[in-house]
Amino acid sequence: MLTDVEPVFMEIAKAILRFEHVLISCEFVTRVQELGRELNAWAEANNLPGRAVTVPAPADDTWARDHGPITIATDEGFALLDFRFNAWGNKFSWEKDNALNTHLAGAGVFGRHPMQPVDLVLEGGSIESDGQGTILTTSECLLTATRNPSMDRKTIEQKLAEHLGAERVLWLEHGYLAGDDTDSHIDTLARFCAPDHICYVTCPDETDEHFDALQAMAEELQEFRCKDGQPYKLTALPWPDALYDEDGQRVPATYANFLIINNAVLLPVYQVAQDEEAVRIMSEIFPDREVVPINCRPLIHQHGSLHCITMQIPEGVLKV
Asked: Under a CB-based contact definition with an 8 Å cutoff, are residues 135 and 166 in contact?
């Protein structure tokens, strides 16, 4: 679906360039270089702060959230963690994506910031951090035997503490989206908006197949507590009308798959009736950021959305 999704990629890149730089990798060498020149000419013409850095690199798919580097802050500065990637439990080809971070580091785009390999299968979309030591995740994903078969819950928690500084892990035992290949990634279900605030997907239709699981997930979230013992502030997100791919399979459309960038939030919308309400709610959640809706209907037909195809890199790491 490259013809359909490339304009979405360009819209996302242009939205990012209004606020910060963007790194784009693609195995089609000539095309990615053309796009980089086009984006930078557009950014310069509009006097924008961001610039596009492009790197030709072999890849299996587009989901940078799950195979891209996860950056941590250490006493010595930023370090990029290269977790193992096996395409959500060997569901698809993954060898090129698993090698992509090494390829990018070898191209010099991260300057002298070290790339550290981690012997753990972990996708970026499977974890949410509050930035203060709490990780939110799902047992359906992190404990599936197709990722780290020798590791139980306690071992996974120890690994998250060792590599990501997790002081505690909040496990959701319920919640899923039909058409999701990831085994219930948290970034499609519930997201931190602030250390004490979580937004989450809810289904109001009792006849929908998602109703029971998402109701149970909401009840779990209500039981979670912040570090200080207080309950989290919870905001329910709208439930978009059901969407289906060309084979008639339901796709996992969700407004939880947003991307926070400098001074803005990029929000996936799907050309359905609930889009306007989603923009309104997100504007209330992030009053100090511009909410930028982006039509991600072509992306969701590939069973992923906006957050799934992006991975944030802290300022100063990317060599521009």
From this structure: yes
Confirm whether 308 is a catalytic residue.
yes
Query: DSSP label at 308?
Result: G
Apex 7 CA angle, 64 and 53, nearest 5: 50
Q: Which two tokens stand for residue 52?
A: 């596009």
| Maximum pairwise Cα distance, the chain | 54
| β 115-121/259-261 pair status | unpaired
The torsion angle over the Cα atoms of residues 124, 308, 72 and 263, rounded to 10 degrees, is -150
Of the residues 26, 199, 203, 308, which is catalytic?
Answer: 308
Does the pLDDT value for residue 278 go beyond 90?
Answer: yes
Residue 98 tokens read as 């698993």
For each of the domains in the chain, give its residue range(s) and CATH number, in order of start.
2-309 (3.75.10.10)
Place of tokens 């207080």: 230
- pLDDT at residue 207, as a whole number: 96
Question: What are the backbone angles phi and psi of residue 308, rounded to the nearest 5°?
Answer: -65, -30
Q: What was the pLDDT predicted at 160? A: 98
Could you tell me the pTM of the whole model?
Answer: 0.97
Please tell me the distance from the alpha carbon of residue 165 to that of residue 192, in angstroms, as a whole number.
Answer: 17
Strands 290-295 and 134-138: unpaired
What is the structure's pLDDT at 158? 98
Q: What pLDDT was estimated at residue 2?
A: 87
Distance in angstroms (rounded) separating the CA atoms of residues 147 and 140? 11
202-226 pLDDT per residue, tens: 999 999 999 999 999 999 999 999 9
